[in-house]
Automatic annotation (TrEMBL):
Protein name per the record: Uncharacterized protein
Taxonomic path: Bacteria, Pseudomonadati, Bacteroidota, Cytophagia, Cytophagales
Length: 89
């Protein structure tokens, strides 16, 4: 992910969520999608699968992906990874 600097000199909320997502994904491993689907039935649905795809695309292009979707996936993946989620703000 290419991190852009926001107007205030730091990462945007979306970019911070993506950093957290990448960290969690690295802990869970290559089967992170399967692990999420197993731990949360939402991600075993068409809509849940769309969320996962959206976030995966946002990692390579941070202009893509809805911040709410990224947040939902990141928090769920942090739980699977054993990371205590922290406030987004």
């Amino acid at each position: 992910m290419q991190a852009r600097v926001s107007e205030y000199g730091g990462l945007s909320i979306k970019e911070r969520l993506l950093v957290r997502f990448i960290k969690s994904r690295n802990i869970v491993g290559k089967n992170w999608r399967g692990a999420l689907a197993e731990s949360d039935p939402f991600f075993n649905t068409k809509l849940g699968g769309d969320y996962l795809t959206s976030v995966a695309q946002a990692v390579s292009d941070s202009s893509r992906g809805n911040v709410d979707r990224i947040e939902r996936v990141t928090i769920a993946l942090e739980k699977v990874a054993g990371i205590t989620p922290v406030p987004i703000v």
